[in-house]
Amino acid sequence: MKIALIGNYPLLGTKSMFLYAELLRKTLVKSGHDVRLFQPKPFFNKIDFKIKLLKKWLGYIDNYIVFSLTLKKKVSKFDIVHICDQANSPLIFFLEPKNVILTCHDLINVKLLNNNRLHKISLTGKIYQNLIIHFIRGFKTIICVSESTKKDLLKLIKFKKTKIKVIHNALNNKFSPTSSIERKNMLKKIDLNYKYLIHVGANVWYKNKIYLIKIFYIFLKFKGRSEYKLVLVGEKNTEEINSLTNKLNIKNSVINIINPNHNTLCALYSGAEALVFPSLEEGFGWPIIEAQSCGCPVFTLNRPPMSEIGLKSVFYINPFNKYKAAKIINTKLNSTEKIIKKGFKNLSRFGEKNMITKYLDVYNEFKR
Length: 368
Description:
By secondary structure, the protein is of the alpha/beta class.
């Protein structure tokens, strides 16, 4: 089967979307299919503009005008054209809808149109999200990465259930526990001679890092926990995060590790006492199963899709009840052996073979 995957614009900073497109590409190639991953390239954004708003709008032009003008010709001979992110749903306007499939990861920003209590959305943001909704309606088949996303799709866009298929992601790379000797070698440039909790993720509002830091501040006050560190892995800390750690006088207890390579990430998971992942919203929640693959227990919010992915293999907290959340982490850290075993068992639900079989079933059904 000839399959064209449509990936994301490189300057958008959506790391998880690049990982997803590459995961799909490599697993389909392993299955013997002819696969090409097409991604828009910077054209007007070749110059390193310092004005963020200008870069953003030039990115839209590169993605939705420059890239789209040649896209139809590039994918004309493919059996399936798969747009890998709902944010690129407007690209269907330039294609033949009859063989185009969309993956919908989440509708987090779309939901802000009806409820912006937790996060404000700009006027241009509202226009963009409404365009995404409009073009999503033009797809014959949509793959959602979780039942939670499917539920949102049915509620917000009133899609037909028969058009939506749920396929959980597999791990986007090989994750496994690293020994203390391996960790020491991999992390020799990072001073991690202490016990630590870890968080992996971007600085977007729904990752809930501010409440995470407040929970950690309370956690430090429990007996025997004062020397713990909180390791924030991903993007450079925001001014808001730095201001809060200064205000709480825990600046030296919060460590920021920016975009580590894969082996380093595995080592960080393996050495952590736990992943604390208090996200309010997710499409899927890769860090949950990444941590479990490395033998790292997980604390997360008891809300889909986190509860859908973790089931009974994680500890649940309510981040808005900061004291109780900190108390649960403090107590449960004393007995993590069973939850770690449950985590390894949970991983069997997210294998590559299982994922790609389901994708091929959708592709074959779509072709008929």
